[in-house]
Amino acid sequence: MSVLEIRDLHVSVGEGDDAKEILRGVDLTIRSGETHAIMGPNGSGKSTLAYSIAGHPKYTVTKGSVTLDGEDVLAMSVDERARAGLFLAMQYPVEVPGVSVSNFLRTAATAVKGEAPKLRTWVKDVKTEMAGLEMDPAFAERNVNEGFSGGEKKRHEILQMRLLKPKIAVLDETDSGLDVDALRIVSEGVNRTRSDSDLGVLLITHYTRILRYIKPDFVHVFIAGRFVEEGGPELADKLESEGYAAYVKDSAEVAAAEAAAL
Amino acid sequence: MPESSETTTLAGELFAPGVGAQAGPPTTPAAGTGSAGEAAPGAHSSGGPTPTGSPAERFTATDPEAFGDPTGREEDWRFTPMRRIRPLLQGAPSDAALEWDADLPDGVELTRVEAGDPLLKGLPEPADRLAALTRQRSGGAAVVRVPAEAQPDRPVTLRLTGTGGDDVVWGQLVVEVGAFAQVTVVLDHSGSARYSGGVSVLAGDGAHVRLVSVQDWAPGSVHGGQYDTVVGRDATVEQVVVTLGGDLVRLVSNVTYAGPGGTAELLGVYFADETQHQEHRLWVDHSVPHCRSNVLYKGALQGEQAHTVWVGDVRIRPAAVGTETYELNRNLVLTDGARADSVPNLEIETGEIVGAGHASATGRFDDEQLFYLCSRGIDAETARRLVVRGFFADVVQRIGVPELQERLMTSVEARLGALPGLADQPVEV
């Protein structure tokens, strides 16, 4: 049983006078086995939240805390966070020329598990998981993300999640840019992990489409750097029919009122 | 990757300008040098009688004075730090020598010919002043002879060690490989020297020759040289250039074909640390039908004022129908303050070819790559090693001498700054 706790998280980008606050007090608790959907319009700071949890150097935490089972995540380096059990499936996975998928996966697994996986079972595991995501075995010999289609990149992200077995996975717009087939394959991979492990999922998305495949336990609406509403799966249905307009309007009014008060 | 660009030129495009980050302007003849039309009276030229525009018809001569004294503005020298190569260009005669340690398999002969020997007269001519000086000052040549049809059981290894001193060492080596022989020759340069060495590989018909030249010089060393390759009918020559050490290394590799059906593979890896200048210039002259050439050079740079230059000229003359050629240069810039120049040039004078292309890309090992690998639990040092090892692997594997491959990768990794404890995490290529 693991728990990721985010408390009053404030995050900015840029330095000095150019610093801009993106996250403005985020509170969230994710436990093993739970799936939380975070929904919000473009520019609301959803991806910033994902990257801040993973420790991207571009983002500066100015206030608040993130803990995993009581351990201070913000004090950890990027690789330490991954080894502690956090995983970020990226919206735009990065190309790494000259490094094969198979070498990359094995190196990552070695780092996360603390020892090299036994070769025979490892090869079998990789093959099985690749088949589960309908990936061609030849994929393993290609360079990481180099020349991958959008769907291949996302499947590769989920493959890593399957093999590295994190405690908490943050899926940052994993559904964006996918056709229906790829969306189904990727979603099945996530659902398989939810059913055969205790994974906690933070599913960040702009659209409700993926929520028809991955049923969330909780839905949070994220506007202008903070949560403005939380509820069950029914909230996603409401968003699907009404969109973000009401929230964005509220947010703009609040911001205007705040500005006037200063 | 930011700062990267890639182009592929197909048959039919007559001339493609240089591409790649920080690539200079297309190769054009500089005033007073480089074109046959402006040659000094009496100079020899292996090129045609009239310049054909850009890139320039190439000027060659045995007389150093035919080239004039380079100022650094000439196309051939515009990337080279002239102050640092000046000791070689001054051309003072000397008796200084490298220390030779030769490992010769049975049947392979190492001899010497004196200046004026017919063998030397038949070599491809020098293409710049330094090469001409080298031919003149070396006063003869060491000759490695591999008889026809020989298949030595191990590589011919020449360990050439610099013993220090300010005097320039002038050297000329000829590797003469008989028809249908198969041989690997390793030139392993180390120690401290100011060295200018010409190397000519003459591959007989149907021969298969691999020449590996390692520049693992001590800091402060300066090494210039022209490497000529004459590919016999149906012969294959692989040249692997590995430049790691020294203050300045500038190698000019030229390929010509003596008959149809020849193949030249020009492979290179280089790793420049702060203030190192590593320059590799290639010139492949397709003048006979049905030959192939493939160029693959990869370099990594780190540290302030690390500078690498790769210039790849390929010319397909009207007679060279059925030519197939491709050249690729990739540079991996590991830190700020390093500069990689990459200038491919392809000139095609016949449409009757199988294929011709080039690509050049210079990219950074950027924070996003590092972040991606680290976000999967891989520590930063291992991530760097993984990327650089992977980057070089496809060229290094082609050396075909396992001990040497291992040594080079170890050397590269040492320079990346391995942390203690990494040995517990084997990284496989």
From TrEMBL, chain A:
Q: Name one Pfam family in it.
A: ABC_tran
Q: Matching CDD domains, A to Z?
A: ABC_FeS_Assembly
Q: Which Gene3D superfamilies match?
A: P-loop containing nucleotide triphosphate hydrolases (3.40.50.300)
Q: Does the keyword ATP-binding apply?
A: yes
- Which GO molecular function annotation, any one, does this entry have? ATP hydrolysis activity
- Signal peptide from the UniProt entry: none
Decide whether keyword Plastid is in the record.
no
Keywords, alphabetical: ATP-binding, Nucleotide-binding
Give every ABC transporter domain span: 4-249
Residue ranges crossing the lipid bilayer per the database entry: none
PANTHER family xref list = ABC TRANSPORTER I FAMILY MEMBER 6, CHLOROPLASTIC
Q: Which family does it belong to?
A: Belongs to the ABC transporter superfamily. Ycf16 family.
Recorded protein name is: Fe-S cluster assembly ATP-binding protein
Automatic annotation (TrEMBL), chain B:
List, alphabetically, the Pfam families matched: SUFBD_core (PF01458)
Q: Tell me the Gene Ontology biological-process terms attached to this UniProt entry.
A: iron-sulfur cluster assembly
User: What are the residue boundaries of the SUF system FeS cluster assembly SufBD core domain, all occurrences included?
Assistant: 165-391
Q: Which InterPro entries match?
A: Fe-S_cluster_assembly_SufBD (IPR055346), SUF_FeS_clus_asmbl_SufBD_core (IPR000825), SUF_FeS_clus_asmbl_SufBD_sf (IPR037284), SUF_FeS_clus_asmbl_SufD (IPR011542)
Query: Which portions of the chain have biased composition (kind: Polar residues)?
Result: 1-10
Q: Where is the composition biased (Low complexity)?
A: 16-43
What are the boundaries of the region Disordered?
A: 1-77
Similarity comment text for this entry: Belongs to the iron-sulfur cluster assembly SufBD family.
Record-linked NCBIfam families = sufD
Q: Which protein are we looking at?
A: Fe-S cluster assembly protein SufD
Which taxonomic lineage is given here? Bacteria, Bacillati, Actinomycetota, Actinomycetes, Geodermatophilales
